[in-house]
Amino acid sequence: MSTNIWIWIAALLTLAIYSFLYKDNIVYKIAEYLLVGVSIGYSISITWYNVVIAKMVVPIRDQHNYLIIIPILIGFLMFFRFSRKQSWLSKIPISFVIGWGAGVAIPLGFQTTIVEHIKNTIAIPWFGGNILLLVNALIIFVGVVATLVYFYFSVPHKGTIGKIANLGIWYIMIAFGASFGYTVMARISLFIDRAQFLLHDWLGLIH
Question: Where in the chain are the domains?
Fold first, then answer.
């Protein structure tokens, strides 16, 4: 069994979190609140040093970049959200953030969700001399078309359209199942890591 105080603290907090499997209790709540508090404190410290100091203080003090004062003042307008009469001033930095976010997110989203899907569906090696690549390309192409037909509600899902839409449902269910399986595997991996920590680092039962 380990004599390191920090390993004991980590082990007890791990057991406190897993105590929720029995029922919601005060030990679990203490560990939960401690996690939230430490996370917020860590985020504040990271923000202070990586944003306030690195992006605001250093450019002005060391690099003499006084133009950065303008976005700093615009950012400080956010604090007017706490004022009932002057809260409208906070809309100025919010508009900058939303405009910049939309300008970055829309092209990026178009590229990742539309262009890349089209490339992977159409611009794939259909005839590369490998039958497995051809079968894989056909499966992807049929799945994309069937899924899009399922979400096409302008026509009734009857006859041929209905059969293709039903095939799209199968593809969607397979995708959901794979996603859920991946999530479960990730959670099990986390549990295995904690179990190894408790049995190896803390209790020393396995080597």
Answer: 128-207
